[in-house]
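Technical note accompanying the year-one report. For the benefit of new consortium partners, we illustrate the data format agreed upon in the data management plan: each record pairs a sequence with a structure-token string. No post-processing was applied to the example shown here.
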Amino acid sequence: MKRFVLIMGIALFAVVVSCGGNAKKSDETIVSIKTDFGEIKVKLYNDTPKHKENFIKLVNEGFYNDLLFHRVIGNFMVQGGDPNSKNAEPNAMLGSGGPGYTIPAEILPNHFHKKGALAAARLGGPKNPGKESSGSQFYIVQGKVFRPGELDSMNVMINNQRKEMMMREQFNVEKSKFDSIRTLNDPAGFNILMAELREKVEGMYAAGPQFSLPNEQREIYSTVGGYPSLDGEYTVFGEVVEGLDVLDKIAAVKTNNANRPLEDMRMKIEIVK
């Protein structure tokens, strides 16, 4: 927020700044997530309105009350919001439930997976090309602090993954040709077609922008921490403003092979502002 200095006395200046600050804060929505280890307060972003409005709607309906943090992975994230978790048996597999709808992606480059980021879970893979979010499931990033060299290696890994994805997409485009070659049992033709496909993908990859973490994000990931490999893949729609210590306690609980806590970790969520 810009602060305008008026040469009309210190008192008037203070009033102008104070009123402007209050207007900004009044637009913020703060959510309280109460857990067995304490309270986490989260600010919802205004520039991801579909996710914000949906989350507020579900909170006001009491949707999240008594649901579990059903997936907890230390140095990564804690996840909840599956309605099937409310009355789940101790060994039940969780993570597939929702309100019956998805939310269009609102992935923005200025919202990234730093420690404390609130993001929407989603179905991965080719079945969800639009990266639509689960209607209710969310996760909070714990992550870890990365060394600069690790971030460099992650840049390379992410770019390689994008190239592999382009290769799969182009393979699907040419699938009928590959099927014909298999039917004819033509290994030489297959190798030629694969070589042509690789050359095409290399050209497309070289012509497009390469992924590189912005300096601001590198600084945060190497000091505060987070999980940068998720950036650009999931909608981040809020961040923790109080209670990172509570997040760390939840992330440290013992879990089974499916990453479900051995002791149920329930939540209660309400709008506080």
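Partners are asked to follow this layout when depositing records. Residues 149-207 form one domain.
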